[in-house]
Amino acid sequence: MSGDQYGMHDRGFHVPPMPPGPPPAPPAPPDGARAVAVAVLNLGGLGLGYALLRRWVLVLLCWAATAVLLLVALPADPDGVPVAALVLYTVFLAGAAAHGALTGLRSRTAIVRRAPLALMLGLVLLAVPAGGVVLYDDAREEATEQMLLDRLDEADRLVTASGKKDFGSGRAGYREALEAYEELRSDHPDSRAAQRVPTRMKTFYTTVAAPYEDADYCTAVAPLTYLRTVPEDMPSTDLGSLEKWPDDRLATSLYECASRGLASGQSTWASQFGELLTTFPDSEQAAKVQPAVAAAVTREVKGLSGTEPCTAVERLRDLGSRIADLPGDEAGIEAALTKDAGRATSSADSGTYTCGVDQYRDGDFEAARTTMNEYASAHRTAGNAARAKKIAIAAEIAQTLPAAGRTLPTTRSGGSISVTVKNDSPDEVTVLYTGPVTGSLTLKACGGCKAYSLGSTLTPGFEPCSGGKNYPQRTISLPPGTTYFVHKSTSSTSSTSSTPATDTAKLESGYVYTECAYTTNSLGSGI
Fold first, then answer.
1. Are 356 and 322 in contact (CB under 8 A)?
2. CATH architecture of 412-526
3. Interstrand relation of 523-526 and 513-519 (parallel, antiparallel or unpaired)
4. Residue 514 belongs to what H/E stretch?
5. DSSP track, 318-365
6. How many CB atoms neighbour CB 294 within 10 A?
7. pLDDT in tens, 358-393
8. Which residues have CB under 8 Å from 82's CB, separation 6+?
């Protein structure tokens, strides 16, 4: 059988074509409440408005944006979320809210059919990000507190490290720590770190002043002086009793260090006593200064009769000068210090004679000569002035004839042996002599005399002062014994030298002696 199996065409039956699909639904009427609900739900940052509209891709986009913000914001930082991130996220939320509102205005796909209920839900869910902001602010404040506590700990470590060094090396660390403490108190006064600063300042003071606790008073002066400047950087309300804490300790350190220096002969004691008297004039330590210097003067005066009288003289002179410069007016001890200075100076002057004798006995004839000449010149009416002159003469002779310095000259004069001293020289001559008797005399130049040639002085029978001239002369009386002579020219001519001449004479009773001064290439003498 051919053709249509059923024979529909033959029977004239026709099936109409199937329709292409159901007709599109008409657009939903505008629903403002739904639009607002979607927008509000999207403001929560989780895309719940898009979830209401079943726009799952956009929901995931909102989640991604919020996740990026959380990665940037967490953990909480004292500086907060970067401004750029906040601006971008805010723009994104505003865009999501606007887009969600437009999409939800006529959407029929909303899961929740009742728009007011969705709007109420959106408003409630806005509390979530708001609460997150509050929690984030709390976390940020805690992060700030931890940061400030870290600064406090770092300042504490600086103090500890500086305390292990000498003050000069550790001062920079102390200064840096102090700046950190001050910044905490001034910039973050309500922080936990700032509240702990007063306690830390006590540790700061005791660490800086550690040498004082170890009784290392000289070392303690500098750090204690520094601590008195701390109130310039820290408010006094923060320091309390610490503001005056260094004063008594510094006064004690100045006194103790100066006292030790005074006893050991160091030169720093005067400046330290001076600082004590001007900085703490009413202190108990300042009242001890005058007794301390008075005791030092007494101690050095006793040294004049010891084995080193010259050292005692030098110290007394130094004491007198330094005591006179001490500023005792504010402390009310100016008059007492002036008296102590005068006693030191006068004792040094009188001790000069003892010093000269000691120098002579030690064989330091040049120093003895200078010392005794200075003493005799400054103390013309003193009881030792005459002997000081004789010791100066003997010391000058002993510089050329050391044997002349074996015994200390006395004030003895005269003797039984006559010695005539003549000048056969064209120069004025001073004759010094010492032995049983010490003295000096000066002879005028011989007008008709000339210097002898060196050869003539070597000729057998050479006798100066025998030419029958009117030689300048002077006769002195000396006792028996060895007398040492030194002749020196006091008006040198071109034919003579300034080199002194010497003669050692052993004088015996029953003889008359002539001591003759003459000149060759150098000044000579004979007896």
1. no
2. Sandwich (2.60)
3. antiparallel
4. strand 513-519
5. HHHHHHHHS--TTTT-HHHHHHHHHHHHHHHHHHHHHHHHHHHHTT-H
6. 17
7. 999 999 999 999 999 999 999 999 889 999 999 999
8. 72
